[in-house]
Amino acid sequence: MILAGGNDQAALMKELKRYFNGEVELILLDMAKNVKALPYADRFLQISTMDQQAVLKAAKEEKIDYILTACGDQPLSTMAYVSTKMGLPCYLSEEDVRYLTNKIYMKQKMVDNDIPTAKYLFVNENQKDINIGNLNFPLIVKPVDSNGSKGVKKVMNNKELKTFLQEAFDYSISKKAIIEEYKEGTELSVDVYVENGLAKLLSITTSNKIEENKDSFTILQSEFPPKINYSEKHVREIVQQIVDVFGLKNTPLLVQMIVGDGEYNVIEFSARMGGGSKYHLINVLSGIDIMKIYVEMVMGGKPHVEPKKQWSNALMNYVYCKPGTFAHLKNFEELKNDKLIHSYFTYKMPGSIIEKSNTSSDRVAGFLVVGNSEEETKKKLMKANRLLGVLNFSGEDIMRHDFFEI
After folding, report:
1. What is the pLDDT of residues 283-318, one digit of tens each?
2. pTM
């Protein structure tokens, strides 16, 4: 049973088919009917991946052998819950997932074990008066148990705090939110495979954000290498500290941290691959097929990884659009064949209505450019930006080309 039907889960399903030489039945669960992974499923059940009781009932009826997901936080909890109830193999316990996906538990454990992170406090929807105590504006507000960038906002004053807290509560399953101090700096996305308790760095990229979204943190690009002064040794030490404190043994791991003025602050982390086709970017940069490694691991194997640098520069670019209805992509396949872009991914189904460009779920597509220098990579991006398009059913290009103008 596969939880969620996005592009990354489609990659998981393809890898499972390969691993079992086609001798496997894949039952896909998603709350939406028309999802990217549907063509790879043997059967489809329209069930929310967060409705644990409904998923458990379906899992028992289907007599499944495994329940899996990839690249998302929220379904991890359901995966661990159903596995525990049915006695199925799972690389994470319910307690593991609690500490790795719920920011209340995660933050407290980080502070208790001297893992560097911003000052914070927790609030719930029932609290009448919010006192931020010794926290100083600007602040960050986020749901404690959501994923992506949903409900994550930068707030400058008490009025904004009240408004954005309610938005965070709306996105939170438990109706709780975290308030933490905003840290100036650059966000690093650190992708890791933990092998027998040892953190092995696969890639470190910069998460470049959409500048016009002043109060939110919508990722526009993953850039390699980061153009900031930082110590890879220190990053490695912090990541290993997380692995040790949280007792991680064999798992993919995504760590997000802010680096600025020589200060390193962990935002959050999860025992999974990053979303937005990060599994593919990791493979291109390090030569490690992390989706293949993940499947071998969850099936009880002990895969070994030895990452090796493959390219000098890379930009994974996420495509957002003006309001409209997505019909099809223009010139993506042609530019891939011409090797101007290395690869591309479609995240929306034709007919999807595009309303905004505020969260990662608003992405329509993604494309990767690689090169042997920063200059070569940026030249490819500029040319690709001129030629690519996202068309509506009237043939009009609704792609936000301005996001990639240099």
Report:
1. 999 999 999 999 999 999 999 999 999 999 999 999
2. 0.93
SS (H, E, C) the chain: CEECCCHHHHHHHHHHHHHCCCCCCCEEEECCCCCCCHHHCCEEEECCCCCHHHHHHHHHHHCCCCCECCCCCHHHHHHHHHHHHHCCCCCCCHHHHHHHHCHHHHHHHHHHCCCCCCCEEEEECCCCCCCCCCCCCCEEEEECCCCCCCCCEEECCHHHHHHHHHHHHHHCCCCEEEEEECCCCEEEEEEEEEECCEEEEEEEEEEEECCCCCCCCCEEEEEECCCCCCCHHHHHHHHHHHHHHCCCCCEEEEEEEEEECCEEEEEEEECCCCCCCHHHHHHHHHCCCHHHHHHHHHCCCCCCCCCCCCCCEEEEEEECECCEECCEEECHHHHHHCCCCCEEEECCCCCCEECCCCCHHHCCEEEEEEECCHHHHHHHHHHHHHHCEEECCCCCECECHHHHCC
Q: What is the pLDDT of residues 364-401, one digit of tens each?
A: 999 999 999 999 999 999 999 999 999 999 999 999 99
